[in-house]
């Protein structure tokens, strides 16, 4: 576990975040939403939870099964800077956009039958500060980092539970998509140590769910070339040339190693026009109607998921990114913001993913944090799309292997209705259990490509059934 000095530092930061401002609980029960026909067939609450000088906006969907007993699931999107609406509409939430016949105006909303809220209470959070409708009350509070944002999410969770005492005894799980994989193990350790220190309310943390998680920058970068070779995007000769000249390391290549640079340039020519989100998809132009979203910044290379396709000529070419446009259109309608209970004047414009954050990357690996968590008795699932070149599955498998866990169930296929849905293996360390699963045919993020398969996987895992 963390040293006592680090523990005290984290707890001091937590206390500062929680008590540096008077927390004001503000929530709205949403019965109807513009674009959806009739009353919502689920219970939706939106609101703000204060963390110091930050007002975090959330979307809380009660379980459609048994809210009092089902798990409470805090879900964080990647980017960093993607709104909770990204997960709500495109990944695991109970609504989705009707895309096929969209020609402009207010988008139509449809019910999603494979929502994870069928079996869990879910908090979708606009995280970190600057994402979605979350805002800061001071200029300095807009600035954050991986570590600071994780501490803020920890504080949010305790404050939210304080304001929702009915859910304080529910088992709690923390989930992430993509970049937020960096935050979740840090948050989990903070929660565990906060519980040990007697912070209230207690968080009944039981496990973590990590989808295509950003975990170690070097491992992920080095995994992309073997991934491309395994899927026949580059030849054996190109792969062997790069492997030998670069000594198997493709991150931070020394420019004086001309053989390595030339090998990587040849590989780039072969894969640069392939969609990294899913190598089977059309490689859509990375154009955006919002200039703010095409600014350059230090970010995970190859992550096209934050860019939007211009909404004209919808029927000409299918593009996985097109539906992303609709959340920006929908959420900027005044009637939508009124229905959600948005405080007018707190943000200028809603962006599905705001990549112009005042955000500093200060964690390039959280493998040590995962190693510490293997002594906690948590239940963890890590899952990956097997056609994802943003966070390749082989890189994820490499860092999991480095945890030195015991294989409990060997690699095998898992099934839905008699068909192979992917492959899975399970690891243990005393009471700690880690399930790893691939989703066959899925890209980055798997939930966007295979909703039924991902819901089935989640339902089985969170209720302790084998995949």
Automatic annotation (TrEMBL):
Keywords: Signal. The keyword Nucleotidyltransferase does not apply. The keyword Signal applies. It comes from the Eukaryota. GO terms for biological process: proteolysis; secondary metabolic process. InterPro entries: AB_hydrolase_fold, Peptidase_S10. It holds the Pfam family Peptidase_S10. One of its GO terms (molecular function) is serine-type carboxypeptidase activity. Belongs to the peptidase S10 family. This is Serine carboxypeptidase-like 18.
């Amino acid at each position: 576990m963390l040293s006592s000095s680090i523990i005290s530092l984290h707890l001091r930061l937590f206390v500062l975040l929680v008590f540096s401002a008077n927390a004001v609980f503000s929530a709205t029960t949403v019965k109807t939403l513009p674009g959806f026909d009739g009353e919502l067939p689920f219970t939706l609450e939106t609101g703000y939870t204060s963390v110091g000088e930050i007002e975090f906006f959330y979307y809380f969907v009660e379980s459609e099964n048994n809210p009092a007993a089902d798990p409470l699931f805090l879900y964080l999107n990647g980017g960093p800077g993607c709104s909770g609406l990204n997960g709500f509409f495109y990944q695991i939430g109970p609504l989705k956009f009707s895309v096929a016949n969209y020609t402009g105006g207010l988008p139509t909303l449809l019910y999603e039958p494979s929502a994870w809220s069928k079996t869990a209470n879910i908090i979708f959070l606009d995280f970190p500060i600057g994402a979605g409708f979350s805002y800061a009350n001071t200029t300095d509070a807009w600035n954050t980092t991986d570590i600071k944002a994780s501490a803020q999410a920890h504080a949010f969770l305790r404050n939210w539970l304080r304001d929702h005492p009915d859910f304080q005894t529910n088992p709690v799980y923390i989930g992430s998509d993509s970049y937020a994989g960096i935050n979740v193990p840090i948050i989990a350790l903070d929660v565990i140590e906060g519980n040990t220190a007697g912070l209230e309310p207690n968080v009944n943390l039981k496990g973590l769910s990590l989808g295509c998680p950003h975990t170690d920058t070097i491992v992920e970068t080095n995994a992309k070339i073997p991934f491309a070779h395994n899927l026949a995007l580059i030849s054996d000769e190109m792969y062997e040339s790069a492997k030998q000249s670069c000594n198997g390391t493709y991150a931070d290549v020394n420019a004086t190693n001309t053989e390595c640079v030339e090998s990587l340039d040849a590989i780039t020519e072969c894969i640069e026009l392939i969609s990294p989100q899913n190598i089977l998809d059309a490689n859509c132009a990375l154009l955006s109607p919002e200039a703010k979203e095409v600014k350059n910044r230090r970010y995970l290379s190859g992550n096209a998921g934050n860019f939007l396709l211009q909404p004209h000529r919808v029927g000409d070419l299918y593009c996985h990114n097109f539906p992303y446009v609709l959340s920006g259109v929908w959420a900027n309608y005044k009637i939508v913001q009124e229905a959600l209970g948005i405080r007018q004047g707190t943000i200028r414009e809603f962006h599905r993913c705001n990549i112009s954050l005042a955000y500093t990357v200060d964690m390039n690996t959280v493998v040590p944090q995962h190693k510490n968590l293997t002594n906690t008795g948590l239940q963890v699932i890590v899952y990956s799309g097997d056609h994802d070149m943003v966070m390749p599955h082989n890189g994820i498998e490499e860092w999991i292997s480095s945890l030195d866990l015991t294989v409990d169930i060997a690699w095998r296929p898992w099934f839905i209705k008699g068909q192979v849905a992917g492959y899975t293996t399970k690891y243990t360390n005393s009471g700690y259990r880690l399930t790893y699963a691939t989703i066959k045919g899925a890209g980055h993020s798997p939930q966007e490509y295979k909703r039924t398969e991902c819901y089935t996987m989640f339902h089985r895992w969170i209720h302790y059934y084998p995949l």
